[in-house]
## 1
Amino acid sequence: MRHLIDPTDLSSSELQEIIDLALDIIADPAQYADACRGKKLATLFYEPSTRTRLSFTSAMMELGGNVIGFSNAANSSVSKGETVADTTKVISCFADIIAMRHPIEGAPLISALNASIPVINAGDGSHAHPTQTLTDLLTIRRELGRCDNLTIGFCGDLRFGRTVHSLIKALSRFENVKVVLIAPDELKLPAYMKEEVCDRYGVPYEEVASMEEAMPLLDIFYMTRVQKERFLDQEDYDRVKDCFILTADKLKNAKPEMRILHPLPRVNEIAIDVDADPRAAYFRQVENGKFVRMALILKLLEWSKIPSMERRLLPDGTIPNAYHCSNPKCISNHEPVETLFRPDRANPGKYRCVYCESKPRS
Ligand code: CP
């Protein structure tokens, strides 16, 4: 069985295969119109979504398949207390592939561990959003003709921004990618991302105080929303919500070929006057999301039939029930699951939670 829970579940060549297939679908969509005839995708969305859920729906329909599922867990038996594991076992009886979004980190991994069909993580809390990453990579490839030799600036909420974490992980597999980080102190990139991804895979990064300072260096400017739903305290959110706002005026020192990406939705971090700039690629990015999800569905269904394509879900050195996770939004603190910790790749002798990558509770 093959799942996509984290961008690192895909090898560099598999990532490339998905992007190439998406480009082929764009060139000749009619060729794929019956590719999933008789198949069902279950979209299990425990958290709101417009782009991800509807692009998955649209992708499966354009492949000739059908879609079942829920967009509000309150209308399902989740409201009666059904766990992610049990829900997954049930849905495995009805569908051929699952796309799950959940506000609790690690929920899609629990689903994959209990599924008899492929599971796709459609976003889990602040942790990961690998299909947004595929969307971003396809967009960068179509807009710039390459995904290597890039300087990419990430701006806004780099702490809770799952799209940022996943894209940096995926870009660490490409040659000569440099990262510029623009965030207030409260929303800086988590230490595990700097140590276990940037340092370990040789992705140079620098933290700068303003977007104007970064702008002339960048091939991609990746803007993100400060996510109100991730804050426990309204005052903390109010203090940082308008920390960085991109306006047309701030683009005057940007390269003519630079592209502006944003996973969307935006609130007010990109002014409307930027939309008319040809470098604003965020609505083209949305459409790429449908094509790349078509490619992903096809590849996961294909790879799941080939025993040699099977991959283990748990990292080497995973130990069960040795620690408790320090993250209140980790699935291990919400449902009766085994705690699982893997070695910390930057700090020998230390461990991190397999579900959400947080440290153990002290
Ligand atoms: N980019 C993204 O995940 O958007 P939605 O929350 O609308 O799915």
## 2
Amino acid sequence: MARRIDHIGIAVGDVAAALAFYRDALGLELTAEEPVPSQKLVSYHLRIGEANLELLSPTAPDSVIARFLEKRGPGIHHIALAVDDVEAEMARLRDAGYRLLGEKPTPGAGGKQVIFLHPKSTGGVLLELCADTRHAPRPSATEH
Ligand code: ZN
């Protein structure tokens, strides 16, 4: 079951401008700046309550985010919901007929296991399910 909003992923073309807005103008705390090689991007976590806005900046032209920016320009890319067990959720949703992007979870930002649902299965939203791989009940100490 989905527990809470973990983060909202926002594709950015100009990181400096995005940080000037979200961090400096809105006053959100930048808690992490993390390369995610599996997705060819750098992720910037800006904490808001228990969730994060996650700015996604591509590091290669064939990155999914680079292609998104090319087609649609900067903006909301996905919404991520925290679950306890990604593989269990995948099996449950797949059995129910929903379309997943990928056969197994991949490593995402923050050491999490992530999988995406196809927007055609979710009413047009690219939805990510993510879980902490450490399987600990998630105190904020696990968020760096
Ligand atoms: Zn994400």
